[in-house]
From TrEMBL:
The chain crosses the membrane at residues 20-38, 74-98, 104-124. Keywords: Membrane, Transmembrane, Transmembrane helix. This is Putative membrane protein. The keyword Transmembrane applies. It holds the Pfam family DUF1634.
Length: 128
């Protein structure tokens, strides 16, 4: 019986997924950097005075609020989030590939890896 998807096809698709995620993330960060420099590039820093600023974009809702107002820092943060989510998308894609192959052992291992990564990402963060 012929497989729907060969192993080489799955590896090629996952490689393309990772490349696409990195390229999209880079483009988003670049656009955010250009916008940030356009809006704040002429500000002269005052190095003799230290002002510790709390990050305005330290949670997802704050990032999305910043995106609505077209802030460069929020767009850069979105690019970083896309970069972080790229390997997670690869793990999900692997699970779907193993599902089509009906490989229960690798499906279970992929779910365990996904659970560990999800827990480690969400455990120390404040979502709201």
């Amino acid at each position: 019986m012929k497989k729907i998807m060969q192993d080489d096809d799955l590896e090629y698709a996952m490689g393309n997924l990772l490349r696409l995620g990195v390229v999209i993330s880079s483009i988003i960060v670049f656009i955010g950097g250009i916008i940030f420099l356009y809006k704040h590039g002429t500000h002269i820093p005052e190095y003799h005075i230290f002002k510790g600023n709390e990050s305005m974009f330290n949670s997802l809702p704050k990032i999305f609020i910043g995106l609505k107002s077209f802030k460069g820092q929020a767009i850069i943060q979105l690019g970083i989030i896309v970069l972080i989510l790229t390997p997670i998308a690869r793990i999900i894609f692997s699970f779907i590939g193993f599902l089509f192959e009906k490989d229960l052992l690798y499906m279970l291992l992929t779910l365990i890896v996904l659970a560990i990564i999800s827990f480690s990402l969400l455990a120390g963060t404040k979502i709201v």
